[in-house]
Amino acid sequence: MEKEFVFGHQNPDTDAIGTAIAFSYLQNKLGYNTEAVALGEPNDETAYALKKFGFKAPRVIKEAAPEVKAVMLVDHNEPQQSVSDIDKVKVTHVVDHHRIMNFNTADPLYYRAEPMGCTSTIVWKMFNENGIEIPEKLAGLMLSAIISDTLLLKSPTTTDDDKKAVEALAKIANVDYKEYGLAMLKAGTNISNKSEEELIDLDAKSFALNGHNVRVAQINVVDLPEALERKDAFLKAMESASNDNGYDMFMLLITNILDSDSEALVVGSNETKELFEKAFDKKLNDSEVKLPGVVSRKKQVVPPLTEAFEG
Q1: Which of 143, 141, 133, 145 is nearest to 26 (CA)?
Q2: Alpha carbon distance 129, 123 (integer Å)
Q3: Fold of 196-310
Q4: 9 annotated ligand binder
Q5: Most buried of 42, 51, 128, 141, CB within 10 angstroms?
Q6: pLDDT of residue 182
Q7: 85 annotated ligand-binding residue
Q8: What are the distances in angstroms from CA 134 to CA 52, 103, 169, 182?
Q9: What is the dihedral of CA 90, 79, 42, 252, to 10 degrees?
């Protein structure tokens, strides 16, 4: 059987990398020949989880077609978030927890989308459905993905299945998920040693909204005021990235993981800024706005933006 790549989205987070590794393991147990790869280097949080459970980071690829004819996608489906030559390979499997947008295939495929807090929760269910045992270290990595995506089960995206998965995986991995989870999340909040250009690209996704190219980035911190001291530098970097890449609007969500509050910085045209204000029913003050309780890009940012831009 020819090899297929398994990978998550660009600018990969712990879900994108951890779930690619887990899904590749599952598919190999089911008779496929797969390799988990990544579309970028792991961030600090993901590197912490990989080291904790003894995994090497998957190798980074820029293109898939030179090596494989088919791929499996996890934690994304939108082509602009995928490998650069996604149109040159066959997508055979998708496991995701996001909206479905601009996704078309020539042939039938296995597609599983569930509104879970994390893709790894869906893969955990698939292990159970197929009666395949999850190794201890892999359970720890899957646990890390769910903790990351749900902010230790505090995100509004969290479901009962996510909670069940966390408890089950923590037992297999033999860790206290609350203690470990907080340490892992904090590992990803050190922004002092990174440039603004690096930070706005660490966890960023592009969305096509009614003809507009909208970029939404997110960084997690434990000290929001300290992060906002770099506001002017963030805005300059966002403007530069928008000019270089044709973004009509660039939104940076800075989230305090301890109290689940965020502030947003926004650059764009007067039109897109007005649409942003319409989406959140809040006025920007010098390109900044408080968004208390907003922590999920998937559930609390992209849906209102989509409605405003397409309304």
Answers
A1: 133
A2: 10
A3: Diaminopimelate Epimerase; Chain A, domain 1 (3.10.310)
A4: yes
A5: 141
A6: 95
A7: no
A8: 17, 31, 8, 23
A9: -170
Q: Which amino acid is at 95?
A: V
Residue type at position 25: Y
Q: How far apart are CA 182 and CA 148, in angstroms?
A: 10
Q: 1.20.140.10, 3.90.1640.10, 3.40.50.1820, 3.90.226.10: which CATH number matches 4-187? A: 3.90.1640.10
Q: Which residue has the tokens 């989870």?
A: 181
**Beta-bridge partners for 95:** 74, 112
The 3 state secondary structure assigned to the chain is CCCEEEECCCCCCHHHHHHHHHHHHHHHHCCCCEEECECCCCCHHHHHHHHHCCCCCCCECCCCCCCCCEEEEECCCCHHHCCCCHHHCEEEEEEECCCCCCCCCCCCCEEEECCCCCHHHHHHHHHHHHCCCCCHHHHHHHHHHHHHHHCCCCCCCCCHHHHHHHHHHHHHHCCCHHHHHHHHHHHCCCCCCCCHHHHHHHCEEEEEECCEEEEEEEEEECCHHHHHCCHHHHHHHHHHHHHHHCCCEEEEEEEECCCCEEEEEEEECHHHHHHHHHHHCCCCECCEEEECCCCCHHHHHHHHHHHHHHC
Torsion of CA 273, 274, 275, 277, to 10 degrees: 90
- Cβ(240)–Cβ(206) below 8 Å: no
Determine whether the annotation assigns residue 161 to a binding site.
no
Domain ranges of the chain: 4-187, 196-310
Residue 160 assigned as binding residue: no
Does 203 belong to an annotated binding site? no
| Rounded average pLDDT per 10-residue block, the chain, 311 residues | 96 97 98 98 97 98 98 97 97 97 94 98 98 98 98 95 98 98 95 94 94 96 94 98 97 94 96 97 97 94 96 81
